[in-house]
Amino acid sequence: MWLISRYLCRHFLGYFCGGLAACAGLLLLVDLFDRIDNFVGRQVLWIDAAQYLLFKLPWLMYQMVPAACLLASVLTFSTLNKHQETIAMRAHGISPLRLARPLFVLGGLVCLGLILAQEYVLPYTNQSYNAIWRTRIQRVKLDLRLGAFKKGQIWYRSPQRLWSAQLGIPLERRLLGVTIYALDAAGTIRQRYDATEARHEEQGWLLLQGTQRRFNEQGLFAGLPETFSELRVGFPERLEEIIALRKEPEEMSLRETLAHAQTLRRQGVTSPTYFVEFHGKLAYAALCIIMAGFGMPLALHMNRNGGTTLALSLTLLCGFAYVILHNLVLALGHNGRLPPIVAAWSTNGLFGCGGVYLAARLR
Q1: Strand partners for 34
Q2: Residue 147 reports pLDDT greater than 60
Q3: Which residue, 159, 145, 239, is CA-closest to 197?
């Protein structure tokens, strides 16, 4: 059985690597032709275009890994069936399900590889190609005097305070156009601070040129506004929490995605988007195991009824069906109509049940 397992693994890995290279290369060409007008129209240097495509390649490969697992599984068993090897193995008492065990192991290893890539590789490469796209290709101008900044209405909520600012400057550790609402345990506003500038210090915050207002339990003014030129307050909120520059979900690692989702929940934000993204990343990695096992009964059934061509056609159909269904239920999860776990894992469960059904029908 060890020799048979090695034989199957060698076939699977060969088809997997070839399929992954072909699919990722095709996606890279599609992306190149889609962006070619931007490269030519903006007279982008070839080195910048090459770096953009190079940093985007890991993301394209990541997207194609489950499809490559399904393709490799189908081609492996189609090849065995074509040469009557599955019949010979059955004659020696080896069932198709037993043959599929090495592929489940390989699928599990690929799943682990995707999780590690999500955690340590993709956040860096995705941030890099997005930065190249914005700064070197689209040539978005940044104010170099400010360094990196976040402009526009900034909102942040902690259990005791609600912050609002017009501009955040991380390198100078300050906020401009600041309003801070101090809340009691019931969520009622008890104090309001307005300042032209707030500077983050080791012991708290320094508010400059503003006013302080107090409110009673009914939410009415408890006195006249107090003006100040400087006011030190010991608020524990950190600048990094308030001014956090927004990342796209694909630019976050698994731990960052979960931490951001939990932070939003603590702030009272009810949007389930980042919980859906977290479970979606895990489900996408686990899909490799399902696809590695799903290909075996699919190939054996289709080779019996229509040959390898029909099996490959159904492989493409299954891939498109998964993408459509998965994106549909994820959209329902983002809208709050499905729980995050259901939205992320339901399509995996459907394909897993389909694989079990096809395997049960094998004779």
Answers
A1: none
A2: no
A3: 239
pLDDT digits (tens, 9 = 90+) for 345-362: 999 999 999 999 988 887
The mean of the pLDDT values for the chain is 87
pTM above 0.90, yes or no: no
Kindly list the strands in the beta sheet with 204-214, ordered across the sheet, starting from the edge strand earlier in the chain.
150-157, 161-169, 174-183, 189-201, 204-214, 226-233
Distances 76 to 13, 82, 98, 321, 353 between C-alpha atoms, Å: 9, 10, 14, 22, 21
Classify residue 305 by burial, with Cβ atoms within 10 Å: 0-12, 13-18, 19+. Answer: exposed
Q: What percent of the chain has pLDDT over 70?
A: 91
Residue 201: both structure tokens together: 């210090």
Each residue of 329-346: pLDDT tens digit?
Answer: 999 999 989 999 999 999
* Pairwise CA distance, residues 180 & 216, whole Å: 17
Alpha helices in the chain (DSSP H): 2-41, 46-82, 85-91, 96-99, 101-120, 122-132, 239-242, 254-266, 273-305, 307-334, 340-360
Q: Is the pLDDT of residue 156 over 90?
A: no
The Cα–Cα gap between 155 and 207 comes to: 17
Q: Where are the domains of the chain?
A: 2-138+271-360, 150-243
Q: Which residue has the tokens 């040469």?
A: 83
pLDDT of 65 above 50: yes
Q: And the tokens for 309?
A: 């061509």
Q: How many CB atoms lie under 10 A from the CB of residue 148?
A: 12
State the Rg of the chain over Cα: 28
Asked whether 235 and 161 are in contact (CB, 8 A), the reply is yes
Sequence-distant (6+) residues with CB within 8 A of 191 are 181, 182, 212, 213, 214, 215
Residue 79 has pLDDT above 50, yes or no: yes
Which residue carries 């017009």 as its tokens? 166
The answer to whether the CB of 341 falls within 8 A of the CB of 279 is yes
Q: Which two tokens stand for residue 91?
A: 């004659």
CB neighbours of residue 185 within 10 Å? 7
Q: Which residue has the higher pLDDT, 143 or 18?
A: 18
